Amino acid sequence: MSAVEFIRRHWSEMLALSTEHLMLVLISTACAVAIGIPLGVLLTRRAALKRPVLALAGILQTVPSLALFGLLIPLPFIGGIGARTAIVALVLYALLPVIRNTVTGIEGVDRSVREAAVAMGMTDRQVLWQVELPLASSVILAGVRVATVISVGVATVAAAIGAGGLGTYIFRGLRMNDNTLILAGALPAAVMALAADWLIGLLESRLAVGRRRGAAHGRMFAKRHATLLVLSAAVLVVVIGGVVAFGVWRGSRSSGSSDGSVEADAPFVIGSKDFTEQIVLGELIAQVLEARGLRVERRFELGGNLCHDALVAGQIDAYPEYSGTSLTAILKHAPLTDPRAVYEQVRREYHDRFNLEVSAPLGFSNDFAILVRGDDARRLNLRTVSDAVPHATRWRAGFGQDFRSRPDGYDGFARAYGIRFSGQPREMDLSLSYRALAAGEVDIIAGNSTDGLIAALDLTQLTDDRRYFPPYEAMIVFRRDRFARVPAAREAIASLGGSLSTEEMRRLNYEVDGKKRAARDVVREWLQSEGKR
Amino acid sequence: MSSHSSDAAVLFRNVTYGVPQLAAPILDNLDLVIRRGETLVLLGESGCGKTTTLKLINRLLLPSEGTVTVEGKSTTEWDPIRLRRSTGYVIQDAGLFPHFTVERNVALVPQLEGWPAERVRERVREMLSLVGLEPDSFAGRYPHELSGGQRQRVGVARALASDPPLLLLDEPFGALDPLTRSSLQKEFRALQRRLGKTAVFVTHDVREALFVGTRVGLMHAGRLVLLDSPEGFMRADEPHARAYRETLKLGDGDADTGNGDRLSGAAERTE
Fold first, then answer.
1. DSSP codes, A462-528
2. Which residue, A51, A155, A278, A398, is the most exposed by fewest CB within 10 angstroms?
């Protein structure tokens, strides 16, 4: 898709995401200024605090942003998923430059000027407001400028915890290996950073020029005074605007509260992980609930294991999960191969440990899938992995990093089947390995069984006849207390049990990934065709 | 030396000042009476305690031991803000606010004191004229647009603006070129004769001390070693006073030392 075409089709979404991004930046920068400048002033008054506070702010800034977001999630009040947590993290990042420049600016005021101010009988407050802050203003503003630019950048990561913004495009683009999408997020963010830098820089130089330029007679005094007024007014507007916008925004996106005492008419908050199939499944849950007249809020594309944490914290009410992932990544057990045993154990332990309920399996599994080209499979009559073992010595293999490194990945697989390839398997990006297989550059890969590309590229999945791979049956995990009170909601979840075959899931994934259609439309059509609406 | 005097503007009584970082006190058991209307010069080399003495008067510092009394009241009892607003203060590089015009700099204390605007404006013009700056051409300028001498004149005008009875000057002319310095010294002496303020003037320049002072206090290592009139200073047997007098002889004819008496025609260099 060309850039022009993309913008033509998505301009309203781009605008919405840019606005969201700008909101995140404005609110967090306003908070950082509102906290950082007074804190910086305090540090110039309490010398003993200076080193520890600056060190702490410095350490905060070195924490990788994704890790900081992750650390904040389990915290009460400030944590969780969504814009609030993102803003907390952004504020923490933006604090250091604001505090440091406030301290540097005030300490940079000429000693003799300070001494004269005190000796003239100015109170500490008068020294601060009439002498120190005006003289430090351009240095402080430079700090605000750095903080704003940092915020524009870090705010792209906020998409990973469901805070929206331009990062949504970037993450989606990375996942789908779609450069247009990545650029659709990265370019507006870059433009925003440059614009912020330029605008604040302009204000900064106005302040500096005001001091340097010395047009004769009191006119300058009035002019300088006006600049300071404009600056204070601008800061005030940003702070107040930020707070108001935050209030409005919070109101419009109000999330389920974390204490479990949700009113009956609060929306069901549905989460999903950050890949296509999860978004399709999240949409599916949302739409079957909506079909029963229930209000739903979507919190899709959450990174890592955020969904589970958010569900346990009561910030989302349900999300799609895979039995094998629950068993190994969340419950930390060793992989099992029997699907029923995995499902039963997960169901029992979720109930006992988290008070969470697990739906009936949806009908398909998203397992590792050993894939070969369809014409090879037909020509050599390959159905199972064992069928392929004798041919494999002439084949080149290409595997994703994940498959190479996981405990249930390549090493165990090669041992279980005694399979050998021609040379060492190539390690490559998962989505690239599909294309490499189709193009004949490799002859066997390990993909995901529900990937839409399997059908689209005419690939054949070889059955795991030795049942080496642990099962990853799709299911829905939800909060039992929340659903217990609403029978229609339980019914909706139950209606999805066994409703999706692997082939159907592949097709739905392909509609979104391959044909670039919206998950919402794809799911609506499917539900209509199934008569579930 | 430490006698009670009804016309004492400032009284130091057994004043010691030290900081924890230094074993020896910066000021050691100082007794000193500063008389109303006199210009007392504190003379001494760097670190002798003369600036500390000055800062103890307007409560920029508080004594470790002893009491400093200003207008009959110990500085510890004074509200520091009130004390400082009734004490003019002039420092070496003027300490003018770079973001204020000359007018606002001079108007600082009257404005802090809440004088009506019209009276403040009048006072500023009066003060600028007093220190030899044409109000119309200087009021709107910023400090960086002035020469060093002009800045120092503004500093004096600022210190005098609220008509304080007491004036503290910490090497006010130390950073100026010799011609400007001597010109300002002369004007200061004339001004002092006219205004009759009590002034404490700190310098390390013996010529300046003898020229502007009605009394000279010689300080050494935190102690006041001699307190006498300029004439008495010239006759004193005190070894440090003798050493200072030696520099006068050596410095004779050295144009770089500002002796105001002989440099009567020196014009102030501006711009």
1. EB-TT--SPP-BEEEEEEHHHHHT-HHHHHHHHHTTT---HHHHHHHHHHHHTT---HHHHHHHHHH
2. A51
Residue type, A480: R
d(CA A478, CA A469): 26
When CB atoms are compared, the residue of A112, A122, A221 closest to B104 is A221
> Is this model's pTM higher than 0.80 or not?
no
Average pLDDT value for chain A: 84
Q: From CA B122, how far away is CA B216, in angstroms rounded?
A: 35
* A contact test, residue of B92, B93, B99, B105 with most A CBs within 10 A: B99
User: What pLDDT does B89 receive?
Assistant: 94
Low-confidence residues in chain A, pLDDT < 70: 1, 74, 77-80, 175-177, 208-265, 304, 532-533
Q: Which residues of A touch B124 (CB under 8 A)?
A: none
Chain B interface mutation, best of A120, A122, A133, A225, highest count of B Cβ atoms under 10 Å: A120
Contact: B91, A218; criterion CB under 8 Å: no
Contact B104 A110 (CB under 8 A): no
Distance, in angstroms, between B52 CA and closest chain A CA?
A: 13
- How far does Cα A26 stand from its chain's mean position? 19
Q: Which residue of A has its CA nearest to B93?
A: A112
| A295: closest CA of chain B, how far (Å) | 59
**Measuring CA to CA, which residue among A486, A84, A150, A517 is closest to residue A293?**
A486
Cross-chain Cβ contact A112/B108 below 8 Å:
no
Separation between Cα atoms, residue B152 and residue B179, nearest integer Å: 14
A430-439 confidence digits (pLDDT tens): 777 888 898 8
Candidates A160, A486, A73; CA nearest to A317 is A486
CA distance B44 to chain A (A): 21
Question: Which pLDDT score is estimated for A228?
Answer: 61
Q: Which pLDDT score is estimated for A244? A: 59
Helices A133-154 and A3-45 meet at what angle, rounded to 10? 140
- Residue that has been written with the tokens 């400048």 in this structure: A37
Nearest chain A residue (CA) to B54: A119
Name the average pLDDT for chain B: 87
CA torsion sign, A148 to A154 to A156 to A158? negative
User: What is the Cα–Cα distance from B177 to A49, expressed in whole angstroms?
Assistant: 43
B28 Cα to chain A: minimum distance (Å): 24
Q: How far is B201 from chain A (nearest CA, A)?
A: 15
- Asked whether the predicted pLDDT for residue B20 surpasses 70, the reply is yes
Is residue B202 within 8 Å of residue B48, measured between CB atoms?
no
C-alpha distances (whole Å) from A387 to each of A11, A370, A443, A460, A462 are 50, 12, 14, 13, 9
pLDDT per residue as tens digits for the range B85-133 = 999 999 888 889 999 999 999 999 999 999 999 999 999 999 999 999 9
Partner-chain contact A119 B94, CB within 8 Å: no
Contact at CB, A122 and B103, closer than 8 angstroms? no
Chain A partners within 8 Å of B145 (Cβ): 214
3-state secondary structure of B215: strand
| Pairing state between β A356-358 and A444-448 | unpaired
pLDDT digits (tens, 9 = 90+) for A315-329: 899 999 999 889 888
Using CA coordinates, name the residue in chain B closest to A122: B81
Beta-carbon separation of B95 and A113 below 8 A: yes
Question: Please, are residues A196 and A145 in contact by the beta-carbon 8 Å criterion?
Answer: yes
CA atoms of B152 and B173, how far apart (whole Å):
7
Neighbouring-strand partners of residue B198: B166
| Residues A187-234: tens digit of each pLDDT | 999 999 999 999 988 888 877 655 544 433 344 444 455 556 666 666
